[in-house]
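Co-fold these.
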Amino acid sequence: MASLSEEVLLVVKKVRQKKQDGTLYLMAERIAWGPEGKDRFTVSHLYADIRCQKISPDGKAKVQLQLVLHTGENITFHFANESTAVKDRDAAKELLQQLLPKFKKKANKELEEKNRMLQEDPVLFQLYKDLVVSQVISAEEFWANRLGGVNNTDQALYNNNKQEVGISGAFLADIRPQTDGCNGLRYNLTADIIESIFRTYPAVKQKYCENVPHNLTEKEFWTRFFQSHYFHRDRLNTGTQDIFSECAKQDEKGLKSMVIQGVKNPLLNLLALDDNTLDEGYGVCSPQPSTSVANRTVKESSNSAIIKRFNHHSAMVLAAGSRKGETLNDQGSETSSTDGNSRDSDCFHPPVKKAKLQEATEYDDLQGENRPKTVPLNLKKSDRYAHGPVPLQSHQYTTSQDIINSVNYIHHEMSNYKPNLTQVMSSTAASSAIAALSPGGILMQGGAPQAIHQMIPTDIQGELKHLYVAAGELLRHYWSCFPVNTPFLEEKLTGHLEEMLQAAYNKFHAWQTRRMMRKT
Amino acid sequence: MASDTDVSLLVIVVDVNPIWWGQQAHREPEFTLAKCLDAVMVLGNSHLAMTRSNKLAVIASHCQDSYFLYPTKKSADNGGDESSSGDGKYELLSATNNQMAEEIREILSKTEVRGNSTDTLLAASLAKALCYIHRVSKELEVGQEMKSRILVIKAAEDCALQYMNFMNGIFAAQKQNILIDACVLASDSGLLQQACDITGGLYLKLPQKVALAQYLLWVFLADSEQRSQLVLPPTAHVDYRAACFCHRNLIEIGYVCSVCLSIFCTFSPICTTCETAFKIQLRQMVKPKKKKLKQQM
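Predicted complex below.
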């Protein structure tokens, strides 16, 4: 209880609680009070459990601080130090004011999560009502398995439900300056565009944080941004007094590091791509080395500058999208995260790489066939198949005389056959057939097996379903105790679970008798 | 609701075993083969009269062969060359009846006496019915759907030798969603009970043979969709127990060879049908045998 390994933020002596003198300790995660002279804390509450704090009004003689917990309990601390009571109390109050909001979110989050789960899933809600409200299982056990998922996976799922919005690649172009009438330009900046600029160019964000609001106003900052050559198409790194010239240098550095890193995908060879056309010499002449700076024309160099800027811009947009809103506290990681290669390098760890290579080089259709080996069928007594698994039936034999007689009779009868459809049967025969086929007749005695769901009213069905689901939940708890490794599980099995099962059985029995009584 | 052009095909397989019917004539003179055929015609006419797009086929199942009573090759050739009946009946119905009568007369007049085959070739007729259904389904127009069912009117007893073929036919019908209904006149047939159960059709053993037409119209005229709206005789429990190959006794728990799937009631280290040796050690072999015996007892 008195774990002094916790960080103690504030100690207030001479605080009375329940008419006892003692010391109040405010730690990193909880508030605790121990009586004078003793080493233990008798009162200890996590900040997460505290709903709010109250202080006694200033005019009162007693200087008090009251904590209201989520459970409704109130705990009052009386600051009894004559000289510094008010100061102590205020210091404690301010510290609590700072700490409580931090922990409040966590507690609320859990409750919120629970509420959300109960609201979204009606089956879960019904289960909760059946088991926890009627006190078959404690609420803790109910949420034990379910919230474990909340903290790890569901949280991630919940976050993933709201997708991150990416950055449009054309956000700079969307700004679209309008002429102001008299030789000025008007740039419309929305919050979205500003956010895009900050996410894509962290250097600009850093400049913004540095300069605004200390040196420049926001408007001035953006005016300078648009005026600077950094923004414009033709960048002339002339080393002016621009705050953005540093950004330009950093961009160059980033681009160079990207190029040096290269592409990690072994199946892709960027250097083999070339922009050659067979215009002169039809492939016979060797291509001019166009990358050497000396041979460049002015036009080529400005084109290459623009292309470089486009490439850099695209890389920054992609990198910003994959960074997923990290705070850019570390400047050092800026350049390393500007390449889109980082994900690729993850993809090429040895087993994945092997699988990819195999996929690219092997064709399934051309492999040899691997059919499982079968045993050939070799029947010795195949006549058994003729009659199959049918029991022996007493065969009625007809004498050959019978056969001859029958056939002759049929010959005779059917040689003059004419259908007489007006006298197929007599009305008595028909009405007796109808009687046999009507409900209650001879043929209908089987009792058409009525589907059970038609015989039982829906409310009873519903209640039975709830009981069934609740029983399933209890069984889940039971089976989760196996294999019995710890004495805790053993104790849970023999003591606790038996009680639960007994309570559930009693509940079911009560329901059954209630239903039977209603019927009779 | 089915559209107007959906085809519903009814194939009636009538058992015309002359030996059984000849004996029947002595047993019960008021219900003869002629009466039976009349009742079948009534059902066929009713089926054709229900909807214009309904189709009918009738197969007579004899002990030597199975014949189509309707439609026959002659009808396809002649077209509408029949003499119309004078009573103003719907021409299709009168043509159908005349064809059927003519065919059956011809078939039965050609029957010869043969001693070795006295069983009705029901499996063969079933196969013919399935093939006919398949052929008609290929001749449908684009967009037409066809629902078919087979009604078997059985007179004579089951023939055990047709078991394999019969079961193959049943499973083929099941795969094609073809219902097999059965109307049994005399003795219960386990094969037909299984057929009806597997394909979802109705099995009926008539308490009264003279009222055959009434039973046919009441129970077997409606097709599968309409049957759910009617109150019809309930399906009886089907005995699916198999008989062991060694003693032909019905058993509930047995041993099955994994190679040839023959069923035995007791364990033996070699299957007698396919001579596969089972590699189970002797001790283990004894234990399950004892257990099984205890269970059966």
